[in-house]
Design a protein that fits this description.
alpha+beta, 36% helix, 100 residues, 4 helices, IspG_C, Sulfite Reductase Hemoprotein, domain 1, metal ion binding, iron, four-stranded mixed sheet, iron-sulfur
Length: 100
């Protein structure tokens, strides 16, 4: 679990907004903790439930947890109006909407 947390921490380095991220390794107590964070994962049995603002948004294989958490963190930062560094801007998943 520490390796997963370290990978997520490294992937979020330089993110220009404060996010509370929970990386939990227990499918029993983990969901409660992950729901309290802006972004979280409760992992076990080879998969992880991804939470954004208290809601489960998807379940992914263990091999995709880090990538998915980073993508969702970038999406949250973008939604919060953060000015993402150019190297992170291209990593934001999904359609981008600009309001004028």
């Amino acid at each position: 679990m520490y390796t997963l947390a370290d990978q997520v921490t490294a992937g979020l380095e330089g993110l220009p907004v404060p996010l509370r991220v929970a990386v939990m390794g227990c499918v029993v107590n983990g969901p409660g903790e992950a729901r309290e964070a802006d972004l979280g994962v409760a992992s076990g049995n080879g998969k992880g439930q991804i939470f954004v603002k208290g809601e489960v948004i998807k379940t992914v294989p263990e091999s995709q947890i880090v990538e998915t958490l980073i993508e969702e963190a970038l999406r949250l930062a973008d939604e919060m109006g953060a000015e993402l560094p150019e190297e992170l801007r291209d990593l934001v998943p999904g359609p981008r909407v600009t309001v004028h």
